Amino acid sequence: MPAALTPAAELARHAKTPFPGASPEYDDARRKLLQEEIEFRRHMTRLTEQRRALPPGPVISKDYRFKDEQGFECKLIDLFGDKDTLVTYYWMYGPERERPCPMCTNWLGAVNGNAADIKQRVALKILSRSPVGRQYAFAQERGWRDLNFVQTVGDDYAKDLGLLQPDGEYPALTVFQRDGDQVRLFWASEMTKEMADPGQDPRDAPDIASLWSVLDLTPGGRGTDWYPKLQY
């Protein structure tokens, strides 16, 4: 049985504002916020444990095809390499787009900085309907060195995941697991725009985009009318 956790309110009493001159109102509000942050951290821990405890997901029975970095056609299971887990991100850079989605670009830029570490534990592939060479050309433009790009052959993969809609294409973060000679879905981001709260853009929880996580720490927050751009 896990050890009982110290109440968050008790832990928060250890807080000490790092600079002198804070008002009693600030100190009191900060301790209350810290208590919530501790509870949030614990909820996040429970959430990750619950995710890891998911029962086996459905077997991917459809024969999806891809083209790898060398231009060779391959199967989904081939994208695992020597790993048992495959993390994929389908980004909005289909052949009909002149330039990729700025939000996808922002997210991939942050992931590129961690990709070498991530790939020590799992396979990581970035998918698009565009040819691999086109994806790598943009990656070179951005200075990305550690991302591996793959082309989906045909539109079945994107259509089956609901990523191709009349109003355009959408991104998808999907995690697969090797099960012998089969591939199973482990987890997929499923917080669609229909699940967004009023006044908010669709997003996952936790929000794994470092851009928003950093801005959430600031007085102005994310704002309501600002998005990253490809160029400034």
How would you sum up this structure, described in words?
With 232 residues, the protein is an alpha+beta fold. It is globular. The model has no long low-confidence stretch (mean pLDDT 92). The chain has six helices and nine strands.
- In whole angstroms, the N-to-C terminal distance is 53 Å
- Determine and state the CATH class of the domain at 65-188: Alpha Beta
What is the global morphology?
A: globular
What spatial order of strands do you see in the largest sheet? Answer: 2-1-5-4-3-8-9
Radius of gyration: 21 Å
The total count of helices amounts to 6
What's the CATH H-level homologous superfamily of the domain at 65-188?
Glutaredoxin
| Coarse structural class | alpha+beta
Low-confidence stretches: none
Instruction: Kindly estimate the percentage of residues that lie in beta strands according to DSSP.
Output: 15-25%
Mean pLDDT: 92
Q: Fill in the CATH topology of the domain at 65-188.
A: Glutaredoxin
Strand tally: 9
Order of helices and strands: HHEEEHEHEHEEEEH
Short key terms for the protein model shown above:
single chain, Glutaredoxin, 6 helices, globular
